[in-house]
Write a structure and sequence with these properties.
The chain is of the alpha+beta class. It is about 55% helix and about 20% strand. It has 5 helices and 4 strands.
Length: about 130
């Protein structure tokens, strides 16, 4: 008997729901919630949803990115960043979120999966400070 883990539950939900829609999908999701309740795992529902999203992203070759800049970007700049991410990570679909943070001074911070590319001025200044302190 396999252990009931967040990943196992997410895989089971995906397998049961990936080809369903409408009422059938609703029934599968209600049953999934009931299983979480019965197994006293409702507190782990957020983790299950995150694991389910990762499974779906893997099947659909979707890349999720979070981009933070000091100033707002034009649509053309956003599309260029998305295209660069698509090429680097070989994704078919890019889902990106863009944020502004005035404290960055300039540059950009891009988070994709477990990788962070930090080219903000603040990060560069911190690296320079560490180098000079050696």
């Amino acid at each position: 008997m396999s252990k009931l883990s967040v990943k196992n539950i997410a895989e089971a939900i995906y397998d049961a729901s990936h080809d369903k829609s409408g009422n059938e999908l609703g029934l599968v999701l209600k049953r999934s919630a009931q299983v979480l309740k019965d197994k006293r795992m409702l507190g782990k529902s957020k983790e299950v949803l995150i694991a389910l999203q990762k499974i779906i992203d893997g099947k659909t070759n979707t890349i999720r990115a979070k981009v933070t800049t000091a100033k707002s970007l034009s649509d053309q700049e956003r599309k260029k960043i998305e295209q660069d991410i698509k090429e680097k990570y070989k994704g078919e679909v890019i889902v990106s979120e863009f944020f502004e943070n005035k404290e960055l001074l300039g540059g950009m911070r891009v988070e994709v999966e477990n990788e962070i590319l930090d080219t903000t001025y603040r990060a560069r200044l911190e690296k320079l400070e560490k180098f000079l302190m050696k």
